[in-house]
Amino acid sequence: MRVVRSPHNPIIRPQDVKPSRRDFEVIGVLNAGVTRLGDDIILLLRVAERPVNEDQGTVRTSVYDVVDDRLVIIDFSKSDPETDFSDPRLIVRSGQTYLTSISHLRLARSTDGINFAIDDTPAIFPANRYETFGIEDPRITLIGRTYYITYVAVSPLGVTTSLIATEDFISFERLGVIFCPENKDVVLFPGQVAGRFYALHRPVSPLFNRHEMWIADSPDLHCWGNHRCLMAPRANCWDEIKIGAGAVPFRTPDGWLEVYHGADRDNRYSLGAVLLDSHKPWKVIARTEKPILLPQAGYECEGFFGNVVFTCGLLCEDDKVMIYYGAADTAICCAELSLKDIFESLNM
Ligand code: MAN
């Protein structure tokens, strides 16, 4: 697979993004939704922040307080034997899980797809009881004139997926939770198939430790049903433990092409592709055996959470597929692949 990483990678780094408050620092800018708006390329960045902390003996994080509509700060003592800090993304104290950062969504615009002007303030910020630990991993699907944004909402109630609609990326209409816990990696298909809307989603079964990709359909984008398991992790492969939809699927003459992520037993996240039937998108036609993009560059292997390439969006023009991806949960990168090469690597 020929992968041309941008020589400007990472194209957006934490230091390029202004924190939402003066006493906070941005520790990651990652997993951005991508679309075009007029002549601009839009990225909706996931910005992960935490309160600045000079005390070496504590880990400091922040959660959104719904009642007071503000962020509150929580300190965890590193010497408390009841608290587990082994995953850099999590703090687990006496069975209760917290995140080490809180994410919001921020707009960035560009005319060349590489140099982005990043807004100084959040576009979408945690705002309700489902979002107290932050909002993450937006995917943008244009349907008609409306951009629909699915995003992961995290709170002690679990990991849910919510929907927001916008026509201009200035005003946003919240449409509520569309997939209840534990469900993330939800992407909407651009347009209908035989009069129905479709979404890929990723429920989790904790009892059987399953992380599979499912597909559902809907008459109105609100009510989702007809759930079917679409595809599973593959034993001893790069996608052996978890899989989930990545970018918004797009139409090709041969079917819907979906670039998805998979994780292996070492928590290494890579990207692969799957081709779904044009008229029956619950049918898998072909899947890449090997990853089309795997963590290899230094900025993909080392960072806040190393060995991760994770996409929420791409742009496809003729044969050129520009994949935007989060590298090591730290920065935004992009890489160009050829559609023809992706098709050749599909195991038909
Ligand atoms: C999760 C995702 C992403 C993140 C990866 C790797 O599954 O939700 O937010 O990039 O893990 O940490």
Quick structural summary:
The protein has 348 residues and is mainly β.
Describe the structure.
- There is one protein chain.
- This protein is mainly β and 348 residues long.
- The protein has helices spanning 298-301, 339-345; strands at residues 4-5, 24-37, 40-51, 58-65, 70-77, 83-84, 90-93, 96-99, 102-110, 117-118, 134-143, 146-155, 158-166, 173-179, 183-188, 197-205, 210-211, 213-218, 225-231, 242-245, 250-252, 255-263, 269-276, 284-288, 309-317, 320-327, 331-338, 346-347.
- Strands 20, 21, 22, 23, 24 and 28 form a six-stranded antiparallel β-sheet that branches. Strands 15, 16, 17, 18 and 19 form a five-stranded antiparallel β-sheet that branches. Strands 1-27-26-25 form a four-stranded antiparallel β-sheet.
- The mean pLDDT is 97.
Distance between the termini: 16 Å
Q: Poorly predicted ranges (pLDDT <50, ≥5 residues)?
A: none
For the largest beta-sheet, the strand count, sense and barrel status come to: 6 strands, antiparallel
Supply the helix-strand structural class. mainly beta
The pLDDT mean sits at 97
Oligomer: single chain
Overall helicity = under 10%
Number of strands: 28
**Ligands, deduplicated:** alpha-D-mannopyranose
The tally of helices reads 2
Estimate what percentage of residues fall within beta strands. Answer: over 45%
How would you describe the shape? globular
The helix/strand series, from N terminus to C terminus, equals EEEEEEEEEEEEEEEEEEEEEEEEHEEEHE
